[in-house]
Amino acid sequence: MSNYSNLIDPHATDDGSERGRAILAALLFAAMSSLAAIDLASDIGEGASVSHWAIEGALLIASLVGLAVMVRALWRLFLRATRLEVETSSLSDRLRREAAASSALRGELLETAEEVERWRNEAQELVRGLSHAIDDQFDRWSLTEAEKEVSMLLLKGLSHKEVAAVRDTSDATTRQQARAVYKKAGLSGRNDLSAFFLEDLLVPAQRTRGPAGEAAAEDDSPAGAAERMA
């Protein structure tokens, strides 16, 4: 709690010593007032002079004033201690709420990280399956290694000039190899080539009827995509 008090009031650590000094001073003034009152009453009973009564009375009044000042200081210290306790409790509650919110945020971040990792693994599996399916289709078309490389680069969206630059060949050679691919595959051009492999990925999975007449989702796994490409 002392740490919280330091955050709220730099002088909070001095409250204990101030309170102790105020209590000690109040006790001293109370003792002086008592002694002065007893002495004054005794002097009056003994018929002391007026000047002596005045001195004793002034000492009593000074003692009572000092006692009142110390009591007032103790009251102010009590009020400040109460205020600090309330503010400390409020700060503690806020810190607990912030800690709970931080813990919840960490949990959400961990869940998001796990979901991203799971999606990345599934995407990698899908990419590997799609790559195998494309390679198998290239083999069915009896493409050469150079034609396979050109076809893959075209599927990635590269132009003929970009494919030629990547493979360090001429633009004419690249176009000739691309035409050979289209001819072997029975396609009209690069748009048909892209559509051949991507149409199954862009169309939502269809539901078909199983042997028992129940609806069954079409296999949208990489293997299923490979089978549909075939």
Summarize the structure.
This protein is an all-alpha fold and 230 residues long. Helix content is 80%, strand content 3%. The protein has two domains: 2-112; 141-229, Arc Repressor Mutant, subunit A.
Counting DSSP E segments of at least 2 residues, the number of strands comes to 2
Distance between the first and last residues' Cα: 74 Å
Please state the structural category: mainly alpha
Tell me the radius of gyration. 47 Å
Q: Element order, helices and strands?
A: HHHHHHHEEH
How many structural domains in the coordinates?
2
Global morphology: rod-shaped
Low-confidence stretches: 1-12, 207-230
Strand order of the largest sheet: 1-2
Average pLDDT level: 76
Largest sheet, described in full? 2 strands, antiparallel
Number of helices: 8
The amount of helix comes to over 70%
